TrEMBL record:
Protein name: Maltose/moltooligosaccharide transporter
PANTHER family registered for this protein in UniProt: SOLUTE CARRIER FAMILY 45 MEMBER 3 ISOFORM X1, SUGAR TRANSPORTER
PROSITE patterns in the record: MFS
Membrane topology: Multi-pass membrane protein
Subcellular location: Membrane
Annotated organism of origin: Maribacter aquivivus
Listed InterPro entries: MFS, MFS_dom, MFS_trans_sf
MF GO annotations: transmembrane transporter activity
Transmembrane annotation, as ranges: 47-70, 82-99, 147-167, 182-203, 247-268, 288-311, 318-336, 342-363, 375-395, 407-426
Keyword Membrane: yes
Organism domain of life: Bacteria
Length: 439
């Protein structure tokens, strides 16, 4: 059932999204610092994809289940989505405190699994939270605001890595099997941000109570026997997939190539700079962090600027162009050996990242039913983590046997996949007829 939601001010939308900062700081560390830690602890390069399988698996399982459960949750005191923010943030903070002290590889891999559970538990309801609170005319601003905080969180994470490596890394000697102490500080900052930013948004933003129909459905679900209540989220997910708008299947095709390519980029920038610039692991990790720092600065700058552009030209065109730009950036990075000039392609990457983190969520939020927004945002995340899972299982052999254990070839491979995703994005048409027939 649809009802008119009050429009929120710019600062109200800002406050509700502050919690995304801590979540994305944690993801920023996963993108830039986790793989160097694996390398420090003795992991071979061709094993990096499979060691990162925690992200896809936990995302595939946790996000749709949490989405379905939160759709059927309501508390006068805690709300619908906010309890899951808090539990996920606490779990993530504890893992971030422990991560840099990992004594051996298997311990770090285990912590990554727990960290990903916490991050996914916090992030999925956040996507639904924006759709719950905002009227359709403000959805683009709401999701692009999240995109801004994606950039800000990852920016802070990578900025801290660059800073601490510069201040403390130059004097340290890399010892096999040991994580350098300068990496500890970034994780400690992330642990604090994870919980404090979530608390800020929780305390600043009340949730909209469910309608009488939604409340009846919630109470009916609570009255069911325990076994049925446990099975209910899985039934909700299966039923929602059967009734899913065709538009979401087209998004899934784009995501297949986009997220496969992104996972390659995050895993192989450190090995790339060891190869192209002759860096040590620590120096290459710092250069990788500077790349991420640059594109997330761009993301912060352009995220809100994309709102009027998507309104004028349509989300499909802006999204597709951004993916083509990201492809161009990955085609050029392997051939630039200057540590400053190699940051230039990150401008295109940053524009692409801003679009990826906002535009698809805006489009999907407009074509899914209000009462199932949580589960559909979870299903959208399944479309992210399935390609990432495929990458973790397949790219190691591809890297070793087809690409010659060469990180340059890996980056070009990722660029080609981004180009394919750009062409597929041109098929993302949303029509009123589709909305009505599919919902």
């Amino acid at each position: 059932m649809k009802f008119n939601k009050p429009s929120l001010s710019f600062w109200q939308i800002f406050n509700m999204n502050v919690g995304f900062l801590g979540i994305q700081y944690s993801f920023g560390l996963q993108q830039t610092a986790i793989n160097p830690i694996f390398l420090y602890l003795g992991a071979p390069e061709d094993m990096l994809p499979i060691l990162n399988i925690a992200g896809p698996v936990t995302g595939l399982i946790v996000q749709p289940i949490i989405g379905a459960i939160s759709d059927k949750t309501w508390s006068e005191r805690w709300g619908r989505r906010k309890p899951f923010f808090l539990i996920g943030a606490i779990l993530g903070s504890l893992c971030l405190f422990a991560f840099p002290t990992s004594p051996v590889l298997w311990f770090a891999v285990g912590l990554l699994w727990i960290l990903d559970v916490g991050n996914n538990m916090a992030m999925e309801p956040y996507r639904a939270f924006v759709g719950d609170k905002l009227p359709e005319k403000q959805l683009s601003l709401g999701y692009q605001m999240q995109s801004l905080f994606v950039g800000a969180g990852i920016l802070l994470a990578n900025g801290s890595i660059v800073l601490f490596q510069y201040l403390f890394g130059g004097e340290s000697v890399e010892v096999a099997g040991t994580i350098p102490t300068w990496l500890y500080y970034s994780f400690y900052i992330g642990a604090i941000l994870s919980i404090t930013t979530i608390l800020y948004s929780v305390l600043k933003t009340p949730e909209i109570p469910p309608s009488s129909e939604e409340l009846n459905a919630i109470n009916t679900a609570k009255a069911k026997p325990l076994t049925e209540r446990i099975a209910l989220p899985f039934k909700e997910i299966a039923e929602s997939i059967k009734k899913m708008p065709k538009f979401m299947w087209r998004v899934g095709a784009v995501y297949l190539f986009q997220w496969y390519a992104l996972f390659i980029y995050w895993q192989y920038t450190t090995p790339l700079f060891k190869l192209t610039m002759g860096y040590s692991t620590g120096e290459a990790a710092s250069q990788s962090a500077q790349m991420s720092l640059t594109y997330n600065i761009v993301t912060m700058v352009v995220a809100l600027a994309l709102v009027p552009l998507t309104l004028k030209f349509g989300g499909k065109k802006i999204y597709a162009l951004s993916l083509f730009g990201t492809a161009i950036s990955l085609f050029t990075i392997p051939y630039i050996t200057d540590p400053i000039l190699v940051l230039v392609p990150m401008v295109l990457f940053g524009i692409g990242w801003a679009a990826m983190m906002g535009i698809p969520y805006t489009m999907v939020s407009k074509v899914v039913p209000q009462e199932r927004r949580g589960v559909y945002m979870g299903i959208l995340n399944m479309m992210i983590v399935i390609p990432m899972g495929i990458e973790t299982l397949t790219f190691g052999p591809i890297y070793k046997y087809l690409l010659g254990n060469n990180a340059i070839n890996a980056m070009l491979f990722a660029g080609a996949f981004f180009a394919i995703s750009g062409f597929l994005a041109l098929r993302l048409n949303v029509t009123n007829k589709e909305k009505v027939s599919e919902l």
